[in-house]
Fold this sequence. Notes:
Helix content: 40-55%
Number of strands: 2
Shape: globular
Bound molecules: heme C
Low-confidence stretches: 1-7, 13-32
Order of helices and strands: HHHHHHHHEEHHH
Mean pLDDT: 89
Largest sheet: 2 strands, antiparallel
Amino acid sequence: xxxxxxxxxxxxxxxxxxxxxxxxxxxxxxxxxxxxxxxxxxxxxxxxxxxxxxxxxxxxxxxxxxxxxxxxxxxxxxxxxxxxxxxxxxxxxxxxxxxxxxxxxxxxxxxxxxxxxxxxxxxxxxxxxxxxxxxxxxxxxxxxxxxxxxxxxxxxxxxxxxxxxxxxxxxxxxxxxxxxxxxxxxxxxxxxxxxxxxxxxxxxxxxxxxxxxxxxxxxxxxxxxxxxxxxxxxxxxxxxxxxxxxxxxxxxxxxxxxxxxxxxxxxxxxxxxxxxxxxxxxxxxxxxxxxxxxxxxx
Length: 298
Ligand code: HEC
Ligand code: HEC
């Protein structure tokens, strides 16, 4: 937590100084700070044991799980289809309908459509409240942009609005490059790009994951780059989903973005990565995933 909080605060401060240069419309609303998000009965009933009654990811079962349940207040959602990598309501709904492969996050499609839609809205609200709270606390703690009675001044409130927008409002959908005819030449080029882009440093030259690197997620937990040969992909194995994760990265993880690749390079690399996968994908238990994350070989 400490690690996450510090790095996040640094990011907020950087952003806030940049945003200060653009003081647009000033909002008059006072920024209220509530300690906890008031979750619904249904959220606590169905999701609370893992995601926590407050949505911060530390439910009673969380200690036994790996990867850990998402912290909806301060964590970033991994599965986003928008070009700024902020999950849309549809992205969250998709997760509720299908679950996240190879994790304890199961499908909730047995719930009614209406309830699923309400839970989606609730998660979006937690993200918005979390963003507001982070930036407000950071400003207040450092005494930045506060007026005489210790509350944020108008410029401070503007920073809070801008930061919250930047952290929670998705832009348009990311569009995948056109496909190519796959042949050995394309796959050979893809392999060269894989090595040139240093994918093998984390995913291994054979794609099975590298054991030499220490990786952590946004909460400071150890993590492991996807085994591209055996693991299922969280975002799905279709061309456009794999291409998107490669180009944009995965929020909250060390899976980097590769925006330098042009469309043809991206397509070649995507086909190469897809060609590594062996069906059917291997599913592991929480303990096995944890062992791998802390560096045990199978
Ligand atoms: C048995 C434990 C468990 C329960 C119950 C559970 N989840 Fe999860 N959930 C997880 C785990 C673990 C992850 C993290 C998966 C990962 O890191 O890829 C997760 C991730 C998520 C994500 C994040 C996906 C992303 O893009 O990052 C959403 C949204 C989510 N859960 C919603 C819910 C909702 C809503 C409920 C209740 C209807 C619920 N979960 C119930 C364990 C659970
Ligand atoms: C710094 C280490 C690192 C590098 C470099 C890296 N990745 Fe990853 N990659 C990860 C991690 C960590 C994950 C797993 C994220 C998670 O789910 O927690 C991942 C996940 C993935 C996934 C799975 C996506 C999904 O939907 O589950 C693919 C595909 C992938 N990486 C491809 C690549 C390619 C191609 C490159 C080179 C351009 C690359 N990675 C470079 C660390 C890395």
